[in-house]
Design a protein that fits this description.
This protein folds into 2 domains: 6-71, Winged helix-like DNA-binding domain superfamily/Winged helix DNA-binding domain (Arc Repressor Mutant, subunit A); 75-122. Helix 2 packs across helix 3. It is 57% helix and 11% strand. The protein is mainly alpha-helical. This is Transcriptional regulator.
Amino acid sequence: MTRLGDLERAVMDVLWDRGASAGSGVTVREVAEALRDRELAYTTVMTVLDRLAGKGMVERERAGRAWSYRPAASREAHIARLMLDALDLAGSRDAALVRFARSVTGTEADVLRAALAEEAAEEPPAPSAAR
């Protein structure tokens, strides 16, 4: 998964915050307007969106004469992929997971337990060995 630079992250945040993945996309002008406090040129925003499309982070389609952009994945899916990529960097994935589990808050641990229990309940039973 691609790590994002500061400006790329700001652009993606606009797309994610506007719910562009659920419906219609967002135009370059709309992104530039949402980031007006950064005083970015329209062409800068267009270049960032074009690069994000090249990286597979956004999908685009024609909307009249302009392009409309939407995230290729949700913010949560992107963060989960980054976490998995970080685990791949660990010498011991198990040790990194244990360290992570010990560093979360009690509420976060409850969320993890519930997600693991839900996943375990959805798994089909293992086939029994033939006798």
